Amino acid sequence: MIQTSRLTYRVNQFWRALRMPARLVDTGQISPCLSPSQMALFRQMQPSEQWHASLVVQRLKEAGQDHPALLTAALLHDVGKILYPLSPLERAIIVLGKKFFPRLASRWGRGIPRGFRRPFVVTERHAEWGADLAARAGASTMTVSLIRRHQDAPLEKPRSLEDRLLRALQSADDSS
Hints:
mainly alpha; 64% helix; globular
């Protein structure tokens, strides 16, 4: 279930998306982290998602994180959403659905992304889709895994480098 602080975060994210300028992020700051094919994927993301991804990278760098696979994953962690772009209204529906009908929202997230279920399916499956897109764009195995796992439940005790990077990605994502 979404906690009140998470709901507040999502409401603020919704308002930022509505006010987001219709311009893209300065790719000069992020291009060192992405290959040309990965940059092509990044450019297909909605402007609000590009801003969010660049903010995740900024948070990671502020925390002293500079692993190349992590920074690439941070920029592409939501790239699966390019397959079915969501409007701010659909994002609000997801937040409300998860808050008030968490079991139904989870069930609606399974299946084909069409009709009223579309935003719920995108939310549930974008990590998987994004990992596949990143792999096809030449991302490292570590980057692909971080993207695929970024919505998994946080690990209590990270056991590997990948687990530690995942925890950093999730933390930066949640605060951006």
